[in-house]
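Give me the fold.
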Amino acid sequence: MPIPTFDHNDVLPPHVGDVTQSANMSPYLVTSLDVAQRFGASPERAAILLGWLDLRADLRRLNLGGGFQWLDGSFLEDVEKIRGVPPNDLDAVTFFHAPVGPVDPTLAATIRDHAATKNRYRVDHYLVPLADHPERLVDQARFWFGLFSHQKTTAVWKGMVQVDLMTDAVDSSARQHLVSLHPPTP
């Protein structure tokens, strides 16, 4: 399913069509290229998405055994219309499987450091291990879904997207798309 258009509240709708069909409900399953094509129109947004793609590449460099990300925040709203300013960052939660190979301890420390990750990648990023105790995993999913499914300032219901983590080739296409729209300045 493509990323839905903004609703009358200038946010992604929490569902489209029949709510008994999971494909019609948030989080919408999309690719990083879908995200880049839909939300990378301005230089500010493209810069944030390039940081997000760098984060995704570094997560793969940690040899994670798979996973996915939920994306949300003002980045997935028409914040330019709502508040008259571009977004500052992208909100992301990475649900991940344990590494299946060696892990660079310096990179792992950076990605676990919330402030460092936000500064380096322009992503307000959190990690949820999929191997967590089932009750804790359900609680984490409940927390993040509850937080991401409402606009912070108005409590309006809204949608989010889910992007598979292990898509290096698609991420490369997303990066190429963003750079073609907004070439780096010399």
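The radius of gyration is 16 Å.
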